[in-house]
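Cast an eye over this sequence plus tokens and walk me through the fold:

***
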Amino acid sequence: MRVIFRCDPMLAAHLPRPVPARGALPDWLRAMPATAYSAIHARDIRTLKQCPPVVDAMTYGFMILLPCDVIVDQGKFSWDWNIPEPATGNHPRAPLSFHTPGQLAGSPFAKPGQAALKFNSFWTIEVEDGWSLYATHPVNREDLPFRLVTGLVDSDRFSDGGINFPAIWKEPEFSGVLGKGTPVAQCFAVPRAAPQLEFEVFDEKRQAAYAQTVADVLSTPGVYRKRFRARRGPSKGE
């Protein structure tokens, strides 16, 4: 899968490039212990850090990064980002814009008087024919003070305009800096063709395989990682 990013020529030297998600893992994941004591089990057990599906989800695809520091003061957002005038017409210069509260009416995101953020994209994104771009909140990043609204864009066709990423600000009392390079959206290409769903019951062979697999997983640490997890190499250009 080739993913092509393009930007305005005047801004190329000022923009953080999208990065493979594996290069944007949070500090808390790196710092958390591999095991922790469980009073229920009366012994140490493995933490999420040793759960390959959790980690693999967090390293899948690529991240769109905040292009500059954004100062937040209890719902007020400001920035000091001195960039050249873009050479392209109708091109944004601000890292953020907003959706009015009325655009959220009737949704679970709606809060009285609260607008939604819109992280402006400074990169166009092109994927291969027949594929779409799935953009969602950085996986398992509950530590971020916003929640991205998930969207799906047919980026094999829509590749000449930037994709903006709406988000709900979760912490109205927050004061601080949302730093340059903060992941704001995790993206990956998905096939547009609908899957064909098929349903079966276990035959004897599948029953035996199920019972043995579950027994192995429960009795031996690392079974999934050693026997089933696919090898993941670096992407081209990484």
